[in-house]
Amino acid sequence: MKLIELIIDEEAELFGIDAISLVEHPAIESDFLALKGEKIVLAEADADKRMLIGAALIPDKPIYRAQDGEDFHVYFSKRTVRRAMELFFKYGNQNNTTLEHEHKLNGLNVVESWIVESKENDKSSLYNLDVPVGTWMVSVKVENDAIWKDWVRSDKVKGFSIEGYFIDKMESQKREKMMTELTEILEENRGSAPKG
C-alpha cells in the first residue's frame, strides 16, 4: 500500500492545524487519559482536574486513508509534527476544539503542550502513555459540563484527532520542480528577447 508523507506548505493560503477534535476512534490509534484528581496523585489530589492528556500527533505513524477509490497511508515526520505544534500556537488555535470533526465546542482549551524528547523521562510516562520520541502531547482542560459528563466520562470519545491543512510531499516536490523549470524558461526568454 502506498505511503505518503504529509508536510506543511507555509506559502499556501490555508496551512497547519486549526483545531483539535475529540473523537471515538483517533486515526493515530492513541487514546487519551481522562484525569480526575482521585485517580492520579497530583498536587491537588482531591480536586477534579477535568483534564484530558494524550497524543495530538505521532511521528512516522502510518495513518490509513481511502480517497477516490484508492487505499493508502499517510504519515508526518518529526519535523512536521514539531512545526505543526509551533504553528498551532503561533496562530492562537489553542481554544479551537470540535467533537468528531463536526461540532465546534466551547469550554475546552489546550493548556499544556510538549514534544516528547525522551520516552523514559517524559511526562507522558507518568500516565503510562507509551508514545515515541517526537510525539506532540497535549493537555486539554474541559470546562464544558455536558462534554465532560456525556462524552468523556461515558467513554464516547477516546482520543484526539487534528484538523488541518497539509500537502503530499511528492506533490510539493513536483510543484517546486515545475516552478523552477518555468522560471528557467522565463529567464531564457528574457535573455533572448530582442532589445529595442
Summarize the structure.
The chain is α+β, with helices and mostly antiparallel strands and 196 residues long.
Could you explain how this protein is built, in words?
The structure is a single chain. By secondary structure, the protein is α+β, with helices and mostly antiparallel strands. The chain has 4 helices and 12 strands. Strands 5-6-1-12 form a 4-stranded mixed beta sheet. Strands 8-7-2-11 form a 4-stranded mixed beta sheet, with helices on one face. Strand 5 (63-67) and strand 6 (70-76) form a beta hairpin. Residues 36-47 have low confidence and may be disordered.
User: Could you give the distance between the termini?
Assistant: 58 Å
Q: What portion of residues is helical?
A: 25-40%
Structural class: alpha+beta
Arrangement of strands in the largest sheet: 5-6-1-12
Largest beta-sheet details: 4 strands, mixed
How many DSSP E strands?
Answer: 12
Oligomer: single chain
Uncertain parts: 36-47
Which band does the percent of strand residues land in?
25-35%
The string of secondary-structure elements, in order, is EEEEEEHEEEHEHEEH
Instruction: Write down the overall mean pLDDT.
Output: 78
- SS summary, helix count: 4
Mass-distribution shape? elongated
Radius of gyration: 21 Å
